[in-house]
Specification:
By secondary structure, this protein is an alpha+beta fold. 32% of the residues lie in helices and 26% in strands. Bound molecules: L-MYO-inositol-1-phosphate (LIP).
């Protein structure tokens, strides 16, 4: 299944790439949440091909009405993660596809066609970037940890969420190496998997932002949890916390101060 998925996702990457280099009309789903015709085009392409190739799976996708979809044997799709980057020609943007069997992680694929980076993982078989095995960093000193985060779309409408972002930043920033905010949760998780970041946290993400990246990170030796340090549950938890494992407890502790 993995090879067929990669073939289809690479074809979809051509649609993303065409859009990236052309002029785009933007529609707003919410105050800060954008969508373009390319998000819809990539999604429709993937849904059609996945439906044909993998009829036993339902497809849960960002730009679709998922109300009648039951999460079980599912392919969870973000056609363009990092849409704001895509619109602004910042090359941190990717197609994210997470495959689940009976709600359990099976295959994760994240593809950035602009930088030509393909992250893949099958549960139990390790994680790879362009075919090369990747692993999390072995840094265990929190002060030396490069972290990444994201800001929720609700930061423009919900003062509690905005205050929470600022409070956590104020506590964590002086204690770590630095914090990045590049704008694609799927790639941020892959960057932890690859040892670029030691950790990552963000609130209010949707299942399609993280469904693939969390499989890739776990297969690279990393850890994913909710803000209490317990198992992260797709579709349920407000916060995702991810790391190289070594700094996880300290990250969780600081996020709860
Ligand atoms: C985005 C994320 C980004 C996050 C945004 C948003 P989209 O996904 O990947 O990191 O900060 O809140 O969820 O909307 O571009 O697919």
């Amino acid at each position: 299944m993995k090879d067929k998925l990669i073939q289809i996702i690479k074809e979809a990457g051509e649609i993303l790439k065409d859009g990236y280099y052309s002029k785009k009309d933007v529609t707003f789903k919410a105050k800060k949440d954008l969508v373009t015709k390319y998000d819809v085009a990539v999604e429709n392409f993937l849904k059609e091909r996945f439906g044909r190739e993998f009829p036993k799976f339902n497809v849960i996708a960002e730009e679709s009405d998922n109300t009648d979809k039951i999460f079980s044997d599912s392919i969870i799709v973000d056609p363009i993660d990092g849409t704001t980057n895509f619109v602004n020609k910042l090359p941190h943007t990717a197609i994210s596809v997470g495959v689940y069997k009976d709600k359990k992680p099976f295959i994760g694929i994240v593809y950035n066609p602009i930088l030509d980076e393909l992250y893949t993982a099958v549960v139990g078989e390790g994680a790879y970037c362009n075919g090369e095995k990747i692993e999390v960093s072995d840094e265990s000193v929190f002060q030396k940890a490069l972290l990444s985060t994201g800001f929720p779309y609700t930061s423009g409408t919900c003062e509690d969420d905005l205050n929470d972002v600022m409070k956590k930043m104020k506590i964590i920033l002086p204690k770590c190496q630095d914090i990045r905010r590049l704008g694609s949760a799927a790639l941020d998780l892959c960057y932890v998997a690859r040892g670029i970041y030691e950790g990552y946290y963000e609130m209010n993400l949707k299942a399609w932002d993280v469904s693939a990246g969390l499989i890739i990170l776990q297969e690279a030796g990393g850890k994913v949890s909710n803000i209490d340090g317990n198992d992260y549950i797709l579709f349920e938890n407000k916060y995702i916390v991810a790391s190289n494992n070594h700094i996880h407890n300290e990250l969780i502790r600081n996020l709860n101060l």
